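Reminder: ligand-aware prediction takes two inputs, not one.
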Amino acid sequence: MPGFELFDEDERRAVSEVMETGVLMRYGFAAERKGRWKAREMEAAICERAGVSHALLLANGTAALTTSLAALGVGAGDEVVMPTFTFTASFESIIAAGATPVLADVDDTLCMSLESASRAVTPRTKVIMPVHMCGAAADVAPLREFCQERGLFLVEDACQAFGAKYKGKSVGGIGDVGCYSFDFNKVVTCGEGGAVATNDAKVYERADMYHDHGHDHSNPDRGLEGHQFAGYNYRISELNAAIGCAQIRKTDKFITVLKRGKKAFRDALAQVDGVTFRRLPDADGDSATFLSFFMPTEALARAAAREMKAAGVEGVFHWYDNNWHYVRNWNHLKGHSFVHKLSSDVHLPESFDFSASDRWMSRCISISMKLGWREEDLPAKAANAAAAVKRALVG
Ligand SMILES: *Cc1c(COP(=O)(O)O)cnc(C)c1O
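Here is what comes back for the chain with pyridoxal-5'-phosphate:
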């Protein structure tokens, strides 16, 4: 899946352009940088892609989430609703913002549903933060409507779904704010990077200041810039931005390749009795980084993962047993284990009964689609995976 599989002359040239001037910082040094503004260039490309008026490129996707919450004014005493199936960055970013994470179940879309989100809402809720998991959109229209009715913010975690669409719109461009990750394992990569996308100029302005120590970016002399708010440092470097500039131009090409692979695997697995597929609220908009399906039972899911790995199938995930992406093994969160003392305003969850999520996640397997696969090898790869799953089912 990751864009690094197809690094070529484009990425090397973009990095060289930065090294020729030696200006690795995204701000200032106007005379020295010879017109090269890689972070700005990437931000313009994100705006175009996401269909938003403002984008801020920063250090990583986790920082994008924290910065979004801060820019929305979310902090001490506020609750943010997040799904049980996501990367741990969801609760990390909420806690970093000083707010309280509240977990909501996922369903057969592998994402938070309106029903579970609305059950998690309390008078302290400020934000609903769905995650577009594994490259495809959550059913975000009902969540958006719910947020509008209740006066809540909708923050889309589109960190795993850059390039995916939901009913004609780019994910990350639908809520009040959208966040992307361009870390090394994402489909479009900066090496490390992330972005905040929004149509709200005020939110953008506050995010822009927050992510750079409060700098208002109003003066060529940084020492003379104002600081309306205190901030933090989540800046991106020009080297990382340069790689992103080269990568983002390949988004459509990447998705075409991934879709080809996914179709081959899906067609093969659809022939296997007992296999059912993840429900996609917008199948055409899928960025196709993963094929996700359900086995009839948890034990059979484990057996399928085992058989596929033994058969040499690459990129097999049984998320239920994964320590990073599903609540079941988040023992640090469950045990309230943090390196430092949290503010007494952060109320960590005490109860972790998510049987509604378990019902889907215990049976779910995802296979990561590789950009580097050759088209002529797909039928054999897909047949190999399907045969392994079949072996698991017949015992
Ligand atoms: C990757 C990811 C993040 C965090 O992105 P980083 O750039 O690695 O900090 C956040 N949320 C989800 C769902 C992710 O997959």
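The chain has 13 helices and 13 strands. The radius of gyration is 21 Å. We will return to this case in the review session.
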